[in-house]
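Quick illustration, no need to memorize.
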Amino acid sequence: MLALWYGHAWAPGPWFVVFPLLWIALIAGVLFFVARRGRSWHTRSGEAALGELYARGEISEEEYRKRQRVLRERPR
């Protein structure tokens, strides 16, 4: 389909399809990295809270190591 643009024939070409796909890929990539960073932040904050419990002497070293393994083995 040709369109007239100031008296010249213009055809959209392959970029008519490529640019929307690039935008979709960019938005999906940003969402993926934001979601992934959010999960790792929660894991780190859990480990920090666990470290504080251990530092205050509220849990033993064995309990600390056990809970730390659980936090790190959690599906991401």
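Strands lie at 3-5, 8-10.
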